[in-house]
């Protein structure tokens, strides 16, 4: 018997202003699209902006439904749109901004478990890590150089 240790390194930026200019611009797109989310039930708004290797930027936000489970998170709205419109493009960077509509939050909000699984599918498919930056509505931005850092021991196609 032996223990295994799984380590994750994340980078924390104090504000969006500390990001490189191109990344700050992508995060601003995530913030802008967050404000257009359709979230009348949770009033929790999430925005996602993706930079593809063909230069396109894809944005998405959460879309809720009166039948709650029929809604979809911002991350999956964006990556499925990217996957459907540009099936051969790779997702290079992902910016996420999330928080309650009324008061916002300075707590960096990571993608939910289901979205981590969905993002993982694209990272495996494209054989290129996705550089992920996430924040609340203000304050610190956390960077993970790969989805793998956020989903250790992930389930992927190699098991099938
Ligand atoms: N949500 C996202 O869009 N992404 C996440 O990673 C976490 C949760 C949405 C789903 C729902 O519309 C609202 O936030 C509250 O859970």
Automatic annotation (TrEMBL):
Keywords: Hydrolase, Metal-binding, Zinc. Its EC number is 3.5.4.5. Substrate binds at residues 62-68. Residues 21-158 form the CMP/dCMP-type deaminase domain. Zn(2+) binds at residues 73, 112, 115. GO terms for biological process: nucleobase-containing small molecule metabolic process; pyrimidine-containing compound metabolic process. One of its GO terms (cellular component) is cytosol. Its cofactor is Zn(2+). It catalyses: cytidine + H2O + H(+) = uridine + NH4(+); 2'-deoxycytidine + H2O + H(+) = 2'-deoxyuridine + NH4(+). GO terms for molecular function: cytidine deaminase activity; identical protein binding; zinc ion binding. Coiled coil: none annotated. The active site is at 75 (proton donor). Belongs to the cytidine and deoxycytidylate deaminase family. This enzyme scavenges exogenous and endogenous cytidine and 2'-deoxycytidine for UMP synthesis. PANTHER family: CYTIDINE DEAMINASE. This is Cytidine deaminase. It comes from Subsaximicrobium wynnwilliamsii. The lineage of its organism: Bacteria, Pseudomonadati, Bacteroidota, Flavobacteriia, Flavobacteriales.
